[in-house]
Design a protein that fits this description.
mainly alpha, Glycerol uptake facilitator protein, globular, MIP_CS, transport, transmembrane helix, cell membrane, Aquaporin-like
């Protein structure tokens, strides 16, 4: 159970500080600051819980890890359940804090992902789908490579976190950057619009993660045993 508690706490931290930076500090830190809030959250959790659960804190990573033989099939659903619970708790806490301000409106949301009219750069559904698929593939592929037993794993957390920063720098205006169904699920529960678009942020990140796991396992010459 320690693995699942760690995944819940790790996802909670990612959503609290990542999405929280959007809600509480967007005007102060800007897009770059938000990107680093998500990335540094990953760095912090990688070095805190990596030795316990592998610090997936993302269903797409868990799926890719299973496909590449890093975890057993029986662990997949408990990992994902723990991640979703952590994301929902963090989103509820953000809402509780934000609603205490007279300047907060439910229309402001909780840093949810989206696309189309009125969101970010108003990119259409096709642009959003392609970005989430490709960005998640790259993210999960980097994670699998950085945490491989033959890699210099001392720097894995930093590499993974900086990769997420890079993805956010180019992707915030496209979808707000999911690459993580749990990160999208929590905030979407508090927004009708985001809930209607949630399907994209489940399907395409999971597809990207699965593809990364398959490519890493089948198309490269690495031994995929961790």
């Amino acid at each position: 159970m320690k693995k699942y508690y760690a995944e819940c706490l790790g996802t909670f931290t990612l959503v609290l500080f990542g999405c929280g930076s959007v809600v509480f500090a967007k005007n102060e830190v800007g897009q770059l600051g938000i990107a680093f809030a998500f990335g540094l959250s990953i760095v912090a959790m990688a070095y805190s819980i990596g030795s316990v659960s592998g610090c997936h804190i993302n269903p797409a990573v868990t799926l890719g890890a299973w496909i590449s033989n890093r975890i057993e099939k029986k662990e997949v659903l408990p990992y994902i359940a723990a991640q979703l619970i952590g994301a929902v708790i963090a989103s509820g806490l953000i809402y509780m804090i934000a609603s205490g301000s007279p300047y907060y409106s439910n229309l402001d949301g909780l840093g949810q992902n989206g696309f189309g009219y009125g969101y970010g750069g108003e990119y259409n559904v096709y642009s959003a789908a392609v970005f989430e698929l490709v960005a998640t593939f790259i993210f999960v592929f980097v994670i699998l490579g950085a945490t491989h037993k033959d890699s210099n794993t001392k720097f894995a957390g930093l590499v993974i976190g900086l990769t997420l920063v890079m993805i956010h720098i180019i992707g915030i205006q496209i979808t707000g950057v999911s690459v993580n169904p749990a990160r999208s699920f929590g905030p979407a529960l508090f927004s009708t619009t985001a809930l209607a678009q949630l399907w994209l942020f489940i399907i395409f990140p999971l597809a990207g993660g699965a593809l990364a796991g398959y490519v890493y396992k089948k198309c490269l010459i690495f031994d995929t045993e961790s």
